[in-house]
Amino acid sequence: MGGKELAVVNNTRPLNLREISARATLREIRLQGHVYVELRQVGKRSIFFCTLCQTQCFNDSVLNDHLNGNLHSRRYAAAEVTLFGPNPWPFSDGVLFFSTSTDNDINGHEATSNFTGKSSSGGEVANGCKKDTTCVRGHDKASKRNGKNSCRFIPGVLFKAAIRNIKAKFLGYGHIGAKVCETADGHRDMTRIWCAWLGQDSSTDCQGLLSSPKCDFAIMSFSYTYDLGRKVAIDEAHDSFSPGSFFEIDELGHRRKKKRKSFSDPEDSSDSKADRLSGCSGDASGQLHASRLISNKFTRKELRKQKSLTAERTCDICGQLMLLGKDVSTLLNCKTGKLACSSRNTNGAFHLFHTSCLIHWILLCESAMWSGQSTNGKATTRGRKSKQAQKNSIAKFCPECQGTGIHIEGDELEKPRCPLSEVFLHKLKVIEANKAWMKKPEDLKKCSTGLHFSSDSDKIYIQEKVVPLKLLHFYRADE
């Protein structure tokens, strides 16, 4: 691409022409309307990443080939129906949602915003920000119109290395709806379920949706940091790191044996520096000074490596990494006002998931509740729920610890609700159902995401209708 403008380079960092070129390309790509493309760090290299397709592109030509390819065309067509709209989702979680405005790249520089772009097919990108539109991240947008709903306080949360009450700003509403199909004999199946983003829109066309019953869980979002929601023994690990340290901390925070690294490693630049220093000074003080330099540099290197490992946490629903600075979420029990994980621990820790993944999990919960209620009215045996109803009733909890956020007395913790194998199957169902949805999403005229469930091929449906279900509240931690 010609006419690339050189980026402003921080004088404290070494000049990297490849990185400057990548940033210039990114600006051009985003100006063309590809707001879902970003720069990510893979090792020491900056690469392009297409959020729509979850595809890595290692240079300009690969990126251009991808954006003009069939896979991207299909995903873009789905995004036009679900993600591009005048009122976009206020999240950027790196697996489905992306930011259309302030998108800090891998080194903290802001990408170009406030544009009206063109798609790869030449059409206007609907959620590109225009000059008279403020398209901001959700945590910067708290409405004053909602009075008591504008914020709430969540008690006993492990946040920024301390257990505290955190202030949660109200972001807006998501409306959960579904498509129900009926056979000639009266049997009903839910074939699709979705969440459409209403935000804080109280216009006439949303009044009917806003009257839906409130979901018993809400989405509580955060900007991801490595220590969010848990205690990380980084400070304790500092004392154990030394040039000859026998242990290292793995991704789960456990200590394990490690190979002792030899200072003859040619990749360790501190080795040659120490040789020069020891050569210049033959006395004991010179050797001691050189030894300290080696120790300090090696310790810092080890700490950086261990911190990086600690930061690499994966979403327990989709299994993909959660990225620093991206949006992650946990479940909030609307009835008790506590995080769902609070009933499974007493130290304020909680589990995190990509925001879109947690929305999909809630949709699965709601579909299971609907199916269970539908089944209960027809198929019961000796006053007990049918097996199908029992199976459908197990998904209403944090997908990692099975906490629901109920009030607990003393040290008695909430018991797990079902075997881990069943929870695993539900997570697979979420992934597959969302893939099916993206192949042929529902056109709701609002930004949305959803699930599509496969049905028996021999069933013949004579009627289908859209059913409004619940109103899902979204909050964000006031950081």
Give descriptors for this structure.
single chain, 479 residues, alpha+beta, 9-stranded mixed beta sheet, 10 helices, 29% helix, 23% strand, disordered N terminus
General description of the model:
The chain is globular and about 90 Å long. Strands 4, 5, 6, 7, 10, 11, 12, 15 and 16 form a nine-stranded mixed beta sheet that branches. It has helices at 17-31, 60-67, 70-82, 204-210, 234-240, 269-280, 284-311, 355-376, 387-392, 420-439; strands spanning 37-42, 45-50, 55-57, 151-159, 162-183, 188-199, 217-223, 247-249, 255-257, 327-333, 338-339, 353-354, 380-381, 384-385, 448-452, 461-477. The chain contains ten helices and 16 strands. The model is unreliable at 1-11, 102-148, 234-281 and 376-394 (pLDDT under 50). The protein is of the alpha+beta class and 479 residues long. Helix content is 29%, strand content 23%. Among the domains are: 16-81; 167-232 and 313-375 and 394-477, no CATH class.
Q: Spans of 5+ residues with little confidence (pLDDT < 50)? A: 1-11, 102-148, 234-281, 376-394
What summary fits the major beta sheet? 9 strands, mixed
Radius of gyration: 26 Å
- Compressed to H and E, one letter per element, the order equals HEEEHHEEEHEHEEHHEEEHEEHHEE
Count of helix runs: 10
Query: How would you sum up the global shape?
Result: globular
What proportion of the residues is helical, as a percent range?
Answer: 25-40%
On the 0-100 scale, what is the average pLDDT? 75
* Structural class determined from secondary elements: alpha+beta
* Straight-line distance between termini: 40 Å
Strand portion: 15-25%
